[in-house]
Target: Tripartite-type tricarboxylate transporter receptor subunit TctC
Amino acid sequence: MIHMKSLRHGLAGLSASVIACATLGVGVSTTAAASGWPAGQPINIVVPFSPGGFTDLIARRFAHDLGAALNANVVVQNKPGASGQIGTAFVSREKPDGYTLLVTATQHVIYPGLQPNLPYDPRKDFSNIAILAYAPNVLLVPAKSPVSNAKEYTAHANEKGGLAFGSSSVGGSAHMSGELYKMVSGANLQHVPYKGASNAMTDLIGSQIPSAFLDATSAAAFIRSGEVKALAVTSKERLPSLPDVPTVAESGYPSYESQAWIGLFGPADLPGEIVARLSQVAIQSSNTDANVKWLTENNATPSRLTPDQVSQFVLAELDKWKEVIAKAKVTVQ
Model:
């Protein structure tokens, strides 16, 4: 999870719970959908995590623009618990009328591989609407490490007979990035879970652990200060905020791609015109100059995926992480 203290400008001007309609436009018409939605009724966006994290901040920025575009009140409700399962299950049981939406993160596609008996099915119980942001991870080593790129890292790990990599948790996006790297590169790596990215970073800086996969927001300041060395970002393209750090794909492993993301969903069978309207607002909101600047400052990037593309993406992510989890024999307590 990406932590509040590393984010900038996060909640400036936003209410803690209700994002009223605003004069700030996102370049779209305020004509209501054919169904009459929204008909003077608040739209509730459920975030299945605690306030202040990256998912919550993304949700509140989107809610602000959605309220402006639809001339509606948009309420952000935090329903944390069970790694996002409680809030996600709540939305899956709501009516598909456009008044209850879900903004969640990569756990949506990872946890089905870790816990088959979830109280919902990500493949069937949701309408896939938009990806609001991508947030890649970074492969890091201590500043004095002898390796300087991903290929050298793989060779070093195998020469040593195995190398540890830290991450912020078991089953999180950063951990999965490392497990996928093992599969794609053939590197002999062993995962060491930490309770949060800051603890892993402290040990990495002190060379108490020889490598780590951590989210870019937690890592960026330490990369720029030279306290750690970034070998590669896990996204398909380089991060604008870290332009000198190559991707894993361009470092010799072209099939590799792994990154956290924040997505917008609704209950299954949400009317098509509502899905289309929400997608339109989400794409335009995420790609305004102000939001692109904010995302870049927070080591993230926007998306322009259509609902059909989001559905294809989610299904591919579910399949990918299920395979990685099975092959790596990842379990959670």
Remarks:
- Residues 1-34 have pLDDT under 50 and may be disordered.
- The CA atoms of residues 162 and 188 lie 5 Å apart.
